[in-house]
Amino acid sequence: DAPVLALERLKPGAEPCASHPRFTVIAEASSRATIFEVHATIGAGVHLSNSLTEIRAGENAQVEHVKLQLEGDGVIHLGHGAFHLDRDARLSSTLVSLGASTARHDVVALLDGPGAECAIDGLYVATGGQHVDCRTTVDHRQPRGSSRELFKGVLAGKSRGIFNGRVIVRKDAQQTDAQQKNDNLLLSTDAEVSSKPQLEIEADDVKCSHGTTIGQLEEDAVFYLRSRGIGTREAEALLTRAFAAQILEPIESAALRAHVETLVSARLFPGGEA
After folding, report:
1. Overall pTM > 0.70
2. Three-state secondary structure along the chain?
3. Which of 129, 133, 136, 234 has the most other CB atoms within 10 Å of its CB?
């Protein structure tokens, strides 16, 4: 019943170093598991984190997976997620990327059984000169599968974000239902984001959609909150948290969800929101 914690806690030294952790989860038929994967650092230093997470969900298995990337500014994070779903398996995976000077997250989900379902969500937050790159592939190979994908980015300072999402529907994957969306919020004029959602459909009996948005906080919404006695910085923080909340709400653990919300606010609004 308790969640499983996979923790990579780095303490960079005086010299640059690297680590290569591998987490493997095998959820057998009709099992259920919750996995919290955390990457964090203690102190400052240059470090390469090259991680691999493998999840194999057997027939009718249910897996909830949450990955938190909280590493320090001197870290380069290269993360790869490889997910394999059998018949009627269900996987919910949420990525929260907050740290590292450069972070790249590659996620490949293979729906290899009829009726398999996956929800892949992500929140990437970048400030200063951070660079974050999220690339996903959802491969539907069997009929009656469904996938939901929602990634949101919040970028401030001179940061840069990239999203490249790819949904593949093979010829035999009839009656597939796949949705993909990427929304981005720019908090400064120097922040940049590139978004490229893709659909590759070989079947003819499907329901698929994709889309992307890039914008800034609405001036009318900020003005409305200020007219109610809320300061400008606090108003911007409230609207930013509301934007990110859609990604965090599905996390079942209330304590973990609240902790992540605090981390997001601290990253974007250091020193408080007042």
Report:
1. yes
2. CCCEEEEEEECCCCCCEEECCEEEEEECCCCEEEEEEEEEECCCCCEEEEEEEEEEECCCCEEEEEEEECCCCCEEEEEEEEEEECCCCEEEEEEEECCCCEEEEEEEEEECCCCCEEEEEEEEEECCCCEEEEEEEEEECCCCCEEEEEEEEEECCCCEEEEEEEEEECCCCCCEEEEEEEEEEECCCCCEEEEEEEEEECCCCEEEEEEEEEECCCHHHHHHHHHCCCCHHHHHHHHHHHHHHHHHCCCCCHHHHHHHHHHHHHHHCCCCCC
3. 136
**Residues 164, 165, 171, CA angle at the centre, nearest 5°?**
140
Task: Provide the token pair at 44.
Answer: 């400052």
Residue matched to tokens 């969800």: 257
The string of pLDDT tens digits covering residues 194-248 is 999 999 999 999 999 999 999 998 888 888 888 888 888 888 888 988 899 889 8
Place of tokens 């919040």: 154
What residues contact 227, with CB distance under 8 A and at least 6 apart? Answer: none
What the block records as the tokens of 70 is: 């909280």
Q: Of the ranges 78-87, 241-250, 256-265, which is most confident?
A: 78-87
pLDDT value of residue 271: 65
The token duo for 110 is: 């293979």
